[in-house]
Amino acid sequence: MMSEQSTFSIHETSERSGLSKDTIRYYEKIGLLPRAERKASSHRVYSEQDIQTMSLITCLKKTGMSLEDMKPFLQMSLESDLNDFPEEREMLVNYQKKVEDQIASLQQVVDFIQDKLEQRSMFPERCSLEAENLVTGIAKKKTFS
């Protein structure tokens, strides 16, 4: 059992991890987080390691990784060498490539906006954005005449 000094209430854990209390409970329910230990009053208590795991989940979510894909990473110890897990390492490499592609696409959008600001006009001879998915629903609906 955890010592009293090293435990946090779900409220404190929510504040420290940036996850809502409902999200923490949901992650426990689906097995992404281990079931929280309980005080005699049946209130959940969390350790610093639990909070670190929640931070890892938040970081992995930012890569676009699904909750299901995160499970093998969360089962590794904090000291695990990723090179000992070639499938998981390859998965991270693939997510890195995906994020790099997103950055490149967003840079095209930034360049387009910068070009429009420099031209002081919204009327291009042609649109230099390569991917169709860069055009937002709003831009698709509006036409200039």
Automatic annotation (TrEMBL):
Coiled coil: none
Signal peptide span: none
CDD domains from the UniProt entry: HTH_YyaN (cd01109)
Domain HTH merR-type: 7-76
InterPro entries, sorted: DNA-bd_dom_put_sf, MerR-type_HTH_dom, MerR_fam
Keywords: DNA-binding
Alphabetical list of Pfam families matching this protein: MerR_1
SMART domains: HTH_MERR
Protein name per its UniProtKB record: MerR family transcriptional regulator
